[in-house]
């Protein structure tokens, strides 16, 4: 990511992550998919704090963008992963 990485990361967290977390309440399928990603992330990262999660999200987003991914209206793997990280960040600050 370039110098605008903080802005892009903020966009991801706000527009994808927070919206996805809010959407989970009415979507059992999304909630189940996010739960699976959270379990996978905990296997990979342990019980990370907010800073570690933000670092993971930054690296994940950079890799996804470099592959040509861009957020759209689909619930693809990347979308669900971002929502899962945002869910974990809420838990870390609760």
- The residue ranges in which pLDDT falls below 50 over 5 or more consecutive positions are none
Mean pLDDT, to the nearest integer, reads 87
The helix-and-strand class reads mainly alpha
From the spread of the alpha carbons, the general shape counts as globular
Helix content: over 70%
> How many separate domains?
1
What is the total tally of β strands? 0
Oligomer: single chain
- What share of residues are in beta strands? under 5%
Query: H/E element string?
Result: HHHH
Please tally the helical runs, counting DSSP H or I stretches of 4 or more residues. Answer: 4
Rg result:
12 Å
The N- to C-terminal Cα distance equals 29 Å
Pfam families: DUF6401
Task: Tell me about this structure.
With 94 residues, the chain is mostly helical. The protein has one domain. The chain is 77% helix and 0% strand. The protein is built from 4 helices and no strands. Helix 1 packs across helix 4, helix 2 crosses helix 4 and helix 3 runs antiparallel to helix 4. It is globular and about 30 Å long. InterPro entries: DUF6401 (IPR045647). Pfam families: DUF6401.
